[in-house]
Specification:
This protein has one domain: NAD(P)-binding Rossmann-like Domain (Rossmann fold, 3-Layer(aba) Sandwich). It contains 10 helices and 7 strands. The protein is an alpha/beta fold. Strand 2, helix 2 and strand 3 form a beta-alpha-beta unit. It binds NADP nicotinamide-adenine-dinucleotide phosphate.
Length: 270
């Protein structure tokens, strides 16, 4: 995929990984449609990369529709979609409200599918384009305390894999980047800090470089850091020992007996 002269929509580019990707793509000559929710930060990144700010809440169907409309109106087309916007949530499943379960799935899974659904047909029609999803190690292994987030990211992964096969031979490439912990505001936003000594969070620039490799080279997947791919490989080869070690040394979040028969319907515990 030729980046120079292309039009790239990067969702969640008002901060963290997305802002770093916007910077990388603009430096290689792409016009970047910088998507975010926070108007001030989104416009600041857009100004920095000489791109166009696109505002909208991707957890909301109307917001997703508006983002697609504005993105297409800005330059008449989108050649590259980096579906990066996302949020986490950490805690025992019953402490998460049903409303929050739904909005997290809307943002982390449905938005990626709907934006792809809206933008890929025109890429195929033009005979070139690229889509890169930002997945997570959580979606490859599962993580205690992140059951819904992990499910959403696993969904993104198999969606990407399926779509990559569907677009084969069309000139449109589809790939994923699978990060471990990344040093962004993600953990503060999800309500629980990353407090593990290992693996150490990587800078967002490293994930941005991997996204550029996927987009530019049409690669199917990139892991950041690369050795992380060992985790699902070990789980596949030795599932019993892997699960024992994950329970013993992984996230210590556990569902406790509440005696009230179910999870929360109202506001979240955190
Ligand atoms: N950080 C990590 O350790 C890590 C690890 C694996 C995967 N990831 C994935 O990497 C991606 C980027 O995360 P990050 O680390 O860069 O986090 P971040 O710094 O918190 O940035 C998240 C971005 O998503 C946007 N966003 C959040 N909720 C949104 C909503 N409802 N509608 C539209 N946009 C929304 C934010 O926009 P506003 O700020 O403008 O609201 C922001 O631009 C996510 O998909 C995340 O799951 C992160």
């Amino acid at each position: 995929m030729q980046l120079s002269g292309s039009v790239a929509l990067v969702t969640g580019a008002s901060a963290g990984i997305g802002a770093a990707v916007a910077d990388r793509l603009a430096a290689r000559g792409a016009h970047v449609l910088v998507h975010g929710r926070d108007a001030e930060r989104t416009r600041a990144v857009a100004a920095h990369v000489h791109g166009t700010a696109i505002l909208g809440d991707l957890a909301d169907p109307a917001g997703r529709h508006a983002v697609v409309e504005h993105a297409l109106a800005a330059r008449g087309r989108v050649d590259i979609l980096v579906a990066n916007a996302g949020a986490g949530w950490s805690g025992p499943l019953p402490d998460m409200s049903v409303a929050h379960v739904r909005s997290l799935l809307e943002l982390d899974l449905v938005a990626s599918i709907e934006l792809t659904h809206a933008l890929v047909p025109a890429m195929v029609h033009r005979g070139h384009g690229a889509v890169c999803f930002v997945s997570s190690i959580a979606g490859r292994t599962g993580v205690a305390g992140e059951a819904v987030y992990s499910a959403a990211k696993a969904g993104v992964d198999v969606f990407a894999e399926s779509l990559r096969a569907e677009t084969a031979g069309t000139g449109v490439s589809v790939g994923v980047v699978v990060p471990g912990a990344v040093d962004t505001g993600f953990f503060d936003h999800r309500g629980r800090r990353y407090d593990r000594a290992f693996p150490a969070p990587v800078p967002p620039d490293r994930v941005a470089d991997a996204i550029v490799r996927v987009v530019e080279g049409g690669r199917a997947e990139e892991w950041v850091p690369r050795w992380l791919r060992l985790a699902p490989a070990v789980r596949a080869l030795a599932p019993g020992p892997y699960r024992y070690l994950a329970t013993r040394f992984g996230e210590p979040v556990r569902i406790r007996s509440r005696g009230d028969g179910g999870g929360r319907d109202g506001a979240d515990a955190q």
